[in-house]
Specification:
By secondary structure, this protein is of the alpha/beta class. It has 2 domains: 338 residues, Aldolase class I (TIM Barrel, Alpha-Beta Barrel); 73 residues, Arc Repressor Mutant, subunit A. The protein is 38% helix and 20% strand. The chain has 15 helices and 19 strands. The strands form 5 sheets. Strands 9-10-8-7-6-5-4-1-13 form a 9-stranded mixed beta sheet, with helices on both faces. Strands 14-15-16 form a 3-stranded antiparallel beta sheet, covered by helices on one side. Strands 17-19-18 form a 3-stranded antiparallel beta sheet. Strand 5, helix 5 and strand 6 form a beta-alpha-beta unit. Helix 3 runs parallel beside helix 4, helix 3 crosses helix 11 and helix 8 runs parallel beside helix 9. The structure holds S-adenosylmethionine and iron/sulfur cluster. The site of S-adenosylmethionine has 16 residues, from strand 4, strand 6 and strand 7. It is an enzyme of class 1 (oxidoreductase). It catalyses: coproporphyrinogen III + 2 S-adenosyl-L-methionine = protoporphyrinogen IX + 2 5'-deoxyadenosine + 2 L-methionine + 2 CO2. Its cofactor is [4Fe-4S] cluster. Keywords: 4Fe-4S, Cytoplasm, Iron, Iron-sulfur, Metal-binding, Oxidoreductase, Porphyrin biosynthesis, S-adenosyl-L-methionine.
């Protein structure tokens, strides 16, 4: 109880704290990066190297009330077909600028709901991607699959195009919770999607579920987790439900009076965590679980777990190129984000240039802080020696930064001879501790030495 009040006092489950899938985070991007700099960064990718590609499909048939993702509802295929044509042109532009011999490390289709595309469209887009950047040795092709929005023809198209990692959205199996969050999906529908995936030999399955939903109780989340375990996913993302109706207007449909308190959220997470661990899953970072054979678990044990816009990854490619509206790319030089609105994105591609609207050029300090934050989010510890050797961090300044962090977070962090560590009990505060090292923190905007 005492520990819980200490966690709450130190900022537990503050929905405004970033998830640090990038540093600096997207709200700090500016117009310093535009289409021509993006094209230059593409052209600078070395010949023969490996890159990853993210493709965003911002359409859904239904708009779930809980969802904070950038997407729009459509019942007709018209806007999806028009968008697909844009993607094909964009991929051609990418191909024209890439050096020879560049191959794919990871390809991910996300959204929205990429599986609302008709089968023929999926095949054309996959073929265009591989024409622009062929799959490299051991490459992964993953797609976010809404179990309500998939059938045999579409699953065939994905599997025959080389899909080898499927990701399904589950959220929660409880019918009352599903109704309140505007996302109805029976266990049978989810199971049928999993069977379709497995029948086609897709090797790996990820599932997303949520804790912190209205009406969720320890008993209910335990039931949901057990149902999920019966489907045998290799990897699970257990996200904390972010209730941010000021950003995601759909969430105003969800009454806030049945949301769990921060203490209750902690308990819900713990109940789910224990069930995954008891079933043989390894804990990965702040919100993932993976079987020991899964790539995330292997990477974590080897100290090679990384974080990118899709969350945790074992991908070591230097560049992640985002295609489609609102997608964000990461290069060694910085970040570039495409125009968020599909109209503006399509307009730019039709005019013959990329739609890059915002971004950020890294400074040396950005790179150092980005690695520091990534290490905390992935490993709950950061090595001073690595930051000094690889990022030219000043040893005295670093030590002072760590001391200030310990002064603020008390025994929830530990300064060691090697660097800084977050012990088990401080882990629910990982994002808040990471924010402490964020020089761009909104509340501190305008101050260059924020900590
Ligand atoms: C972009 S969605 C795509 C999933 C796919 N369209 C589906 O519905 O199955 C990816 C995941 O983001 C997570 N997500 C969406 N809104 C969220 C929120 N408000 N808080 C936490 N996670 C959220 C959900 O777990 C969801 O499965
Ligand atoms: S959860 Fe999936 S289907 Fe529902 S609105 Fe979000 S992206 Fe669309």
């Amino acid at each position: 109880m005492e520990q819980e009040s200490q966690l709450t006092r130190l900022g537990l489950f503050d929905a405004r704290v970033p998830r640090y899938t990038s540093y600096p985070t997207a709200p700090h991007f500016s117009t310093e990066v535009g289409p021509s700099l993006f094209a230059q960064w593409i052209e600078a990718i070395p010949a023969g190297s490996r890159i990853s590609l993210y493709m965003h499909v911002p359409f859904c048939r239904r708009l779930c009330w809980f969802c904070a993702c950038r997407t729009q509802g459509t019942q007709s295929d018209e806007p999806v077909r028009a968008y697909a044509e844009t993607l094909l042109s964009e991929l051609k532009m990418l191909k024209e600028r890439l050096a020879p011999g560049v191959t794919l490390s990871r390809l991910h289709w996300g959204g929205g709901t990429p599986t609302l595309m008709p089968a023929d469209m999926m095949r054309r887009i996959a073929a265009a991607v591989f024409d622009a950047v062929p799959m490299g040795e051991g490459a992964e092709f993953s797609v976010e699959i809404d179990p309500n929005e998939i059938d045999a023809a579409r699953m065939d198209a994905l599997a025959e195009s080389g899909l080898n990692r499927a990701s399904i959205g589950v959220q929660d199996f409880d019918p009352q919770i599903q109704q309140v969050i505007g996302r109805e999906q029976s266990y049978e529908v989810t199971k049928a999607a999993v069977d379709m995936i497995r029948d086609r030999g897709v090797a790996s399955l990820n599932a997303d579920i949520l804790y912190g939903l209205p009406h969720q109780t320890p008993t209910k989340i335990a039931e949901s987790v057990q149902k999920l375990l019966s489907l045998g996913p290799d990897r699970v993302a257990l996200y904390g439900y972010a209730h941010v109706p000021w950003m995601a207007r759909r969430q105003t449909m969800i009454p806030s009076d049945h949301l769990p308190t921060p203490q209750e959220r902690l308990e819900l997470f713990e109940v789910a965590r224990k069930l995954f661990v008891a079933d043989g899953y390894d804990e990965i970072g702040i919100d993932h679980f993976a079987l020991p054979t899964d790539g995330l678990s292997v990477a974590q044990k080897a100290g090679k777990l990384r974080r990118n816009f899709q969350g945790y990854t074992d991908d070591l490619a230097e560049a992640l190129v985002g295609m489609g509206a609102s997608s964000i790319s990461r290069f060694p030089q910085g970040y570039a984000q495409n125009a968020p609105a599909t109209g503006a994105h399509t307009g730019a591609i039709r005019d013959g240039h990329f739609s890059t609207a915002r971004g950020h050029v890294f400074t040396a300090e950005d790179k150092m802080r980005a690695r520091l934050i990534e290490a905390l989010m992935c490993d709950f510890r950061v090595s001073a020696a690595e930051l000094i050797a690889d990022y030219a961090a000043d040893p005295a300044e670093l030590a002072a930064m760590f001391r200030r962090c310990a002064a603020k977070f008390e025994d929830m962090v530990k300064v060691t001879a090697a660097g800084l560590e977050i012990p088990e009990k401080g882990r629910p505060l990982t994002r808040m501790i990471a924010r402490h090292f964020d020089a761009y923190d909104l509340s501190k905007a305008g101050h260059s030495s924020a900590i």
